[in-house]
Amino acid sequence: MTQDLSAGTSSPQPVPGAHAGTQPVRTSTIQTPATAAPDSKAPATVTPAATSHTEPANDAAVPAASAAPAQPQAPQVGSAQATATEAKPSGGKARAKKPPVRKAGRRGKARRKPLASRRGERLTPSGSGRDGRDARVAADAGAPAERRIRIGSPESLLAVVPVLLGFQPASSMVVIGTDEPSSEVRLTLRYDLPDPGLAPALAGHAISVLTAQRIQTAVAVGYGPEQLVAPVAAALSDQAHRAGVTMTELLRVDNQRYWSFVCQDPACCPPEGKPFDVTDHPAARAMAAESAQVLASRDALAATVAPVTGAVARRMRQATDGAEEQVARAVARAARSGRKASVRRLIATVGLPAVAEAIRRYRGGGRLQPEEAAWLTVVLRDFRVRDDAWARMRPEHREAHRRLWTDLTRLAQPGYVCAPASLLGFVAWQSGNGALANVALDRALAEDPNYSMAVLLRQAVDSGAPPSLARLPMSPEDVAASYDALEASEETAGETGEENEAVGGPAR
Question: pTM for the full model?
């Protein structure tokens, strides 16, 4: 479903209340909200995607450090390598200036770098939008994460498309890459139908994704009027032929009838279109038996991650204000230490256990109260806390993780949406649900167009990389060791600077 994704570095960031240049020490006065016992129902497990590390069986307790960290690597997904800016979220809270990642250790060996990308660099290709995509031909790209789906006829194709997307398509072109000779689905791309002049650009993107993944056969369905579907179908057919991709079926659907651009037999595919009803099709029944949810439209899918309203929103605003004040008081008390790493350690001390508890709760079928959710959204603004959560997204628990990050994305107040929405985007991609990944990333990038995790995941989703490439780049222990090394180097640099200042010379 995507290309290779290689992030640079980004050091942790304090949550609201931290002032640039002031760092608090650890304090026992910050307490995470009380948590209720989880429900007993456990989520069903699914086949995990390949991962690049082994995580301990019990990850409920988050270690503050690792004595002997292994060498971590940046997230990877294909061939694109870039870095992006972690810009200041809306809300105007001050952040500490982020120092560069330094080498640590007496032997001069470089420590692992944190997951997020380097600040001060953009990830925006020339001619594209701020999040690195051309919105006019952007795709919802997905791949089956756990099902084996075969397409053997036009009716079976029309039956499985809504399930593959998670919603009923309209005004869309859906391109599905398949294996031969089994006709098993490998990749699904959905595009809004563009103006006819943009048909070659859409077709070019779709065929480039197929060829990049060495997919040589495909089917496609256009949903809408002939004047919009036909130009895209023609461009797909032409560019597929030139790229050596065989289009085994190319349909247009409108008003419960379909037409084929491939079949020229009027007895099979009459000029007036062929009526169809896939309600009782075996493929549709099989998907229904798996409780596959199909929403009415993509707008309905976007609504599943929309901000909460009413009494819940008011309660969240109040709880978030309380969490900010609690952190600000602790930061103010700790600022007298003068150590740069102290704020981060303070937030990690309370944030990491909150993340671990939330993950444990949702894996057990439970949920968070608004006060707990508010606290979690505040501490997730810190990169160390967010990256620890990212490192715990084991694919066999992806349904529980989807519920967690969906809830937090909806509950998060302005200024705190980027982290949970980006984590939801990662889990959705990990599950093969490109449409959900995109609507989640839309939320993150609407708040901060330069939020590097969201920008990098957007590139991944747009390029159509399969869920197997959604590897966890670091283990929780790697994350802890990485940030500990960074903080130790900052403390050493700070002490050196103080000594030089004491004797009247500049730090060198």
Answer: 0.69
